[in-house]
Fold:
Amino acid sequence: MALVALEDVGKTYRGRGGAWEAVRGFTLGLQEGEFVCLLGTSGCGKTTVLNMVAGFEAPTAGRILLDGAPVKGPGAERGVVFQGQDSLYDWLTALDNIGFGLRLRGMGKAERRAKATHFLDLVGLTGQGGKHPAELSGGMKQRIQIARALAADPRILLMDEPFGALDAMTRATLQGELSRIWAETRKTVLFITHDIEEAVALATRIAVMTRGPGGTLKAVIENTLPFPRDRTSDDYMAVFRQVHALIHAEIVVASETRGMTAA
Amino acid sequence: MNRASIVGGYLVGFALLFLVWQVAATWLARSALFPPPGPVLERAVVLIQDGLLQEAVFASLRRIAQGFTLGSLIGIPIGLAIGSFRPVRMLLEPWTEFFRFIPAVAMITVAVIWFGIGEESKVFLIAYTTIFVVIISTAAGVGAVSRDKIRAAQCLGASKLQIFALVALPATVPYILTGMRLAMANAFVTIVAAELVASNDGLGKMLWDARLYMQVEDIFVALLALGMLGFLADRAFRFAIRAFAGRFNPTV
Structure:
């Protein structure tokens, strides 16, 4: 049985300007221990899919199951790493941010510190635990977010373009770190991105979405490249081309549609 | 900037203020109604020796401290409730939006009728002027807590109460302190007005008496004392905000 199952999921927003369909007929199962990248152009509804799995938003069609039970609101079994960095708690140190989920469960201070320190080390920030978020760089803040989510020991880690706001060098470094962390923890990951290279570098399966509005699943590609991945190898390039062709078709269609509307 | 250069800057700034005062009084105004700093400071020394200035300062400051504390203690929880619960906001917003346009100065007559010219009326007025500023900035602070901060807590398993106590409340602290700082400035305005109209002591009373007996130097001593006290109170508050919130929020 899939750890998370999305069955014919749809999301339509109803506002003053009428109805707007963000996601349509989306079906995907996530198996325990896999790293799935959900790849799509901007506005395709990929973040909406993540928000529904996280429980921040409810689907208007279909259903989402976690271990066979329908998802009702957010919960500790689904950890989220946000794109923006203001999800960290400015008034807490890095270590206390990481231990926040443990504190919510009433874990004692000493045990919490030990566990938080373990995850601080895991994300490569040894010795930085006493700093406040304002004193950390963007990349370090994302590391803290990952550590905070992992420390709560969720069944699945949901990541919403976590490296989208970082510079290219930092992004590449963190992608490498995330691969290492995933290999160490074998945590199930759903990772949202619009970056093909990122998806090919990280994922064991790449789910490509059609363009929005009303985006849905277009294709799922198995990515069996061995870790650590060499981004200049021929095998890597072959997967990249395959995914690129799928995404490129969506971009072309999207721009043609826009051109027609303009004319 | 280091501490020495900040203090140095303040000293030069104040020296300049006194210089402008001196120039304006001796060359521009040339009037007994606008004394230069010298005679005013001499008069201040006399008033301090007689214990009159301290008495007035202490009376005013005590009222400000009491009313300000009372107003903050009432305003903060109300602001948190307004910011957190929509029904409470619907219910109380007409109150806050109504009363905040009735300045404390306009309430002096009511306060004197209700509480007499003693301490109670002053404390009431200071509390009144404090409450609404604190309520509004506290409620705004709760509203400004970022969605991701709350969502992050939700998917770490936080209950509603935990989100309030461990996320919304600490995130709002800088807003509460800023509101209190603004309220402190209002408190100075209000206390002088209240003491001018009805009081047995305090800096406002000192101003009023000096006007009655045409003791121009006394008026300026009182003004000088108000300026200094306000300046020091605001610095102290800013220092507290920085010590409390600044280490994690560089914008404060």
Summary: Residues 159 and 165 of chain A are 13 Å apart (CA to CA). Chain A has a mean pLDDT of 91. Chain A touches chain B through 33 residues (CB under 8 Å). Chain A has one domain: 4-29+36-44+75-225.
